[in-house]
Design a protein that fits this description.
The chain is an all-alpha fold and 91 residues long. The protein has helices at 13-22, 31-43, 50-65, 72-85. It is built from four helices and no strands.
Length: 91
């Protein structure tokens, strides 16, 4: 059983709208589930910090400037193949 701690939070209108838009999408039954998923993502050890994201973007720009790029169609084909091999929707 999940411990329940009822708290109310004031959210900016745009954030509240974004949460409401997610309800009913991807299996979210209510705003609590949306926020729980958002917090899990935020707390994920795989989440990159802003500095790490900046560094990754800088590497990507350097690669693109050097002509080291992959056509988007190739990337999409790889993603679809990977998704299919993992039992994705297109499998």
């Amino acid at each position: 059983m999940v411990a329940r701690n009822d708290e109310n939070f004031a959210l900016p209108a745009d954030l509240a709208d974004a949460i409401r838009q997610r309800v009913g999408v991807n299996g979210f039954a209510n705003a609590t589930e949306v926020l729980r998923a958002a917090m899990a993502l935020l707390n994920s050890s795989t989440a990159a910090s802003p500095a790490e994201l900046d560094a990754m973007i800088a590497v990507g720009i350097k690669q693109a400037d050097a002509g080291d790029v992959v056509p988007a169609s190739n990337v999409l084909e790889r993603w679809r193949a990977r998704d299919a091999s993992h039992g994705g929707a297109d499998a």
